[in-house]
Every structure is written in structure tokens, then in C-alpha cells.
What we know:
This protein has a domain at 1-8 and 27-75 and 89-125: Immunoglobulin-like. It has one helix spanning 9-19, and strands spanning 2-4, 34-39, 42-48, 57-62, 65-72, 91-99, 109-113, 116-122, 131-134, 142-145. By secondary structure, it is mainly β. The radius of gyration is 22 Å and the shape is elongated. 10% of the residues are buried. Helices cover 8% and strands 40% of the residues. It contains 1 helix and 10 strands, in the order E-H-E-E-E-E-E-E-E-E-E.
Amino acid sequence: xxxxxxxxxxxxxxxxxxxxxxxxxxxxxxxxxxxxxxxxxxxxxxxxxxxxxxxxxxxxxxxxxxxxxxxxxxxxxxxxxxxxxxxxxxxxxxxxxxxxxxxxxxxxxxxxxxxxxxxxxxxxxxxxxxxxxxxxxxxxxxxxxx
Length: 146
């Protein structure tokens, strides 16, 4: 139903941890952690985006590819501001998911609360399990689960 489309994500994460990167020098957008699960007739995907302004989040679907883009901006600067510790990554975070044909991409819903973007993708009606009537010779039709 959902497929991870970035095979180099783990390699990039490991390289970034080993060698570090100065702000603005990492050539690929940083990935955002996520959880995905099916709950009834919908898929739910939760992305961790702590400290990101909801106005700095973009969610797009094109050709069954869901793209989430977010930007964590730097803290205020000025003559009277001196950074003591800066460990949280800044910049653009991006993630793409390939959505199966059995999902209803026209009815995707998203909410952002306490630093977590939750995207709900319903299963398409034609992909839901349904009962099919089976006729019997000399008897009433009987239903079975498909």
C-alpha cells in the first residue's frame, strides 16, 4: 500500500551522523522520521516535525506520489543574541511516499498537532473487501466474503 521511495535514506542518515554537516552544506534535504499504519479503511502516516511552523509545511500529491516538505527556520539573530548550543537540524526536510492504486488520493486529510503531521489516506471503495452473492441451483443465493 505504501512504499518507501528513497533507498539511500539510511545511508545519508549514517553519513550525516558520522561526518556531520555544516548548516547549508548538506546537498540532499534531510528526511523526517515517520510511522505508517493501517487503521480500518485508511492508512495513517505520522511525520515528526517538532519546531516547524505549520505555515512552513507543504503537502502535495502528484501521480500517486505523496510529497511532504517542511522547513525549520533558524532562531532569531542579532547583536544581542549569542547561540550557546545548536543541535537541532535547520533547513528543508522532505519525504516522498509512493501510494498504491488502491488508495483514494482525492480525499487525503492532514492535521498538525504538537509537532506531528498526521496524514490520513482512505482506502478506495473498489479496494475494500466486499461480499459477493453466489447462486445455487435450486436454492437461494448465499453471500461469502471476498
